[in-house]
Amino acid sequence: MKPEALLYPTPAGLYCPAGDFHVDPVRPVKRALITHGHSDHARAGHGAVLATRQTLDIMALRYGADFAGSTQAVAWGEAVDLGGVKVRFHPAGHVLGSAQIAIEKDGTRIVVSGDYKRGVDPTCAPFEPVACDVFITEATFGLPVFHHPDPKAETRKLLTSLVQFPERTHLVGAYALGKAQRVIRLIRDCGYDRPIYIHGALARLCDYYRAEGIDLGDLRPATVEKKEPGTFHGAIVVGPPSAFQERWARRFNEPLIAFASGWMMVRQRAKQGGVELPLVISDHCDWPELLDTIREIAPQQVWVTHGREEALVRWCELAGIAARPLHLVGYEDEGD
Amino acid sequence: MKAFATLLDRLVLTPSRNGKLTLLVDYFRTTPDPDRGYGLAALAGTLDLKGIKPALLKELALERLDPVLFQYSYDYVGDLAETIALIWDGGAKERVAAESQPRLGEVVTRMNSLGRTEVRAAVRELLDHLDHSSRFAFLKLATGGLRIGVSARLAKQALSEMSGPAGEGRDVTEIETLWHGLAPPYQPLFAWLEGRAEKPVLATPAIFHSVMLANPVEAGDLDRLDPRDYAAEWKWDGIRVQISSFGATRKLYSRSGDDISGAFPDVIDAIGFEGVIDGELLVGGTARSNSATRSFSDLQQRLNRKTVNARLVQDYPAFVRAYDLLFEGDDDRRARTYLERRARLEDLIDRAPHDRFDLSPLVPFADWQELDALRLSPPDPVIEGVMIKRRDSAYQAGRLKGPWFKWKREPFNVDAVMMYAQRGHGKRSSYYSDFTFGVWAEGPDGEMLVPVGKAYFGFTDAELETLDKFVRDNTVERFGPVRAVRAEPGFGFVLEVAFEGINRSTRHKSGVAMRFPRIARLRPDKLPRDADRLSTLIALIDQRIDQRAGEAGEGPA
């Protein structure tokens, strides 16, 4: 079977006509397969949703238990038959519960990787390479400028800054699902065992990660206690980056703003965002990881979804690998 | 290299002066010699490092990367040194070397020892052994593009602080006096700062001596002073400089001790005397050549350059209007009285070339009222007020209260309308604290606001709360960190803006540029339609030009 007939882009997202389902649809559909819980991939309002248990749990936390007409949890590697199409979920290493989806019919196999990374992350299952004819990859950091450094070395920058500026509250911006928990875990792995304060928007997801067995240490709400105004002097506070521009941030002492994101690789990005301490910690592949993954899987074709498609397609052409951009819309390349 | 690269990365993104000081002190304390000395030199602009041409860097990058991918990357990053620092793939060597990268001192020594044909291979090898942030630091140093908002003065302040807590450490003026007699990597300086050695003895003459500064006149100050004890001079609107000349060494220093000789060969070549004098650097003609002193914006054509071409020297001739004499030959005159020093200075200037040196004249006055009147209507547009100096004052470095005062003419004021607001940095990152303001002008579709400047201080914390609330409640559009706010004739926020000067500008859409604008008062009592018009601002510029033309007896410019 031709891969273009098995799966193709539509305005609602990637569609498989034989199985009558969409992958990560951006508008409500009858049947959706969801790779992971980030809001641009996992939306509410679909008829039936097939995803990993953890992704379904995260969607329920974010949208309420009735986020879809019906849900079905799938285990790693378990084959599910949808109208003669066999689908399997494999770990993607992006955030807790994140999966790649292998779609197979008549000997043709397409892997939709969703968002993924290859670096070590103790907060989720590691990426598992799956042989396939067509590998659909993201390209969020698909430019040769992106070389993500060792996340622990980045985390130590934060701890060094705490020694240099012991009075200042260190506000660490991190997206609520995945990045925040990973950063907290990294801080713990670097030997920091004092309480870490979190913004309210992180509370439920941090609780969920802990319930799934990921130890985040002593977490406390970043609310002001009238009797102890000095609480936040020299403390680490983790929150969504948008909160630091709001009045909420004024309770802290001379806040020093850090931001954990792959985008922090480029100085001008950090400067424009008013970030004093950029921490290059990403939940996506950097450029060498994208290339290594494509070489390792060695597919017949590479289809590139959201991000910087043109550079990755160019590289594939130079390497003699058939590649094309899918031009999918609706996935934010900012969310890292 | 790693320590210096980390320091740079932090300095670039740290807006507050105190934050920068903390980072600098930490670097000087924890980095060994000679690396910290080269780091200091890089920050203070005294590092001598063999340069690399951007074209060579690009060639090196294209040896390993497809030109199309390089272009995509460059378009995204926007800065050549940073692009190459980021795309460079050192492979295994880079990862192994992360902890044992070449040291800054090694890099400087190696680069400066290279012959012309060795540069390419050496740079390639260095890039392979540095990580991305060290590569960035190295490329910025080698291409001369280091811009990090740290002045030589701030670096010296950090040296003072590393030597001990305030009051116990070495004084920054002592460091400035030594500075130009020392060279990178400054080991004797660090040894002295750390109390391991005696104060370095200077072999080089023509060093910088910290300057004496004046305090602004504040309410009631003059009531307590007898005008007969003081002399007055005009306060000229140029930049304060010091000429230091001994033997064959002739130097021009800025007020903070930066060596700016390279940009002013016309002044340097005219120095025939030996000694140290204090004065104002200006462009135009001296009083002795009978032509007009030109404005600060003309002087700006000559500032912040390393070198200068013949055309600029001819079009914007520089000269020094002398204020004071510190050394005559190698005789220290600083302990003499102001009037005694001035008599010697007069003698010295009399013998100096008349087109490059003149003497700042005394302004006779009988009482403070008379001086006040002179201050408010000075005879030359390049005067920004008066200086009041005690006749018997010694020349003492620093800003002592009492011997010298500055009394500026009143700032200009306009009522302008807030148009855009941007979030501040550091402590102010949750506040909209940088304001772009505009005045009314005739547009194609009738009256419109045109932006004329930006101000981010002058208000109190309580006023900032008010301004921030207005911005949040009245945002009409967002562009990244900037918000456009409602600004209509009948609704908006009027700001009274004070500024020191105004000039024509081709860089700004409105055609005018203000000097030193700040928010003098919030005017919630006014509506935007009551704000000033662009024609009022242009009239201020024309007024100054007419005044100067009249004084100099020339036709209109």
UniProtKB/TrEMBL annotation, chain B:
One Pfam family linked to the record: DNA_ligase_A_M
Enzyme class: ligase
Keywords associated with the record: ATP-binding, Cell cycle, Cell division, DNA damage, DNA recombination, DNA repair, DNA replication, Ligase, Magnesium, Metal-binding, Nucleotide-binding
Top-level taxon in the UniProt lineage: Bacteria
GO biological process: cell division; DNA recombination; DNA repair; DNA replication
Ranges for domain ATP-dependent DNA ligase family profile: 311-441
Reactions it catalyzes: ATP + (deoxyribonucleotide)n-3'-hydroxyl + 5'-phospho-(deoxyribonucleotide)m = (deoxyribonucleotide)n+m + AMP + diphosphate
InterPro entries (alphabetical): ATP-dep_DNA_ligase, ATP_dep_DNA_lig_pp_1105_fam, DNA_ligase_ATP-dep_C, DNA_ligase_ATP-dep_cent, DNA_ligase_ATP-dep_CS, DNA_ligase_N_sf, NA-bd_OB-fold
UniProt keyword Lyase present: no
EC number: 6.5.1.1
Molecular function per GO: ATP binding; DNA binding; DNA ligase (ATP) activity; metal ion binding
CDD domains tied to this protein: Adenylation_DNA_ligase_Bac1, OBF_DNA_ligase_Arch_LigB
The UniProt record lists the keyword Lyase: no
The protein's name: DNA ligase (ATP)
